[in-house]
Amino acid sequence: TLVGGDVVLLYASKYHDISTVVNISGRFDLKKGIEERLGKDFMERVQKDGFIDVRNK
């Protein structure tokens, strides 16, 4: 059974009426900000590459 984000990705790959899929997860420790987790240059990387490849540190 597909649930949550899986359904969204499947729909977006099958029907091309969605141009952008944004993954928002509440599983992270939100005491830290985006910059602390993704780096100071995260917006530049998004603009350059179109995405951020998040890996475990």
Name the features.
single chain, mainly alpha, AB_hydrolase_fold
Q: What's the structural blueprint in terms of helices and strands?
A:
Blueprint: H1 5-14, H2 34-38, H3 42-49
InterPro entries: AB_hydrolase_fold
Structural notes for this entry:
- It is a single chain.
- This protein is mainly alpha-helical and 57 residues long.
- It has one domain.
- The chain is 40% helix and 0% strand.
- It is built from 3 helices and no strands.
- The protein is flat.
- The termini are far apart.
How would you summarize this macromolecular structure in one to three sentences?
InterPro entries: AB_hydrolase_fold. The chain is an all-alpha fold and 57 residues long. It has three helices and no strands.
Give the CA-based shape: flat
Strand content: under 5%
Helical fraction: 40-55%
- Secondary-structure class: mainly alpha
**Total domain units:** 1
Radius of gyration from the alpha-carbon trace, in angstroms: 14 Å
- Give me the strand/helix succession: HHH
Q: How many distinct beta strands?
A: 0
Please summarize the sheet with the most strands: none
How many helices in DSSP terms?
3
* Chain-averaged pLDDT: 79
Distance between the termini: 31 Å
Give unreliable regions as ranges: none
InterPro entries: AB_hydrolase_fold
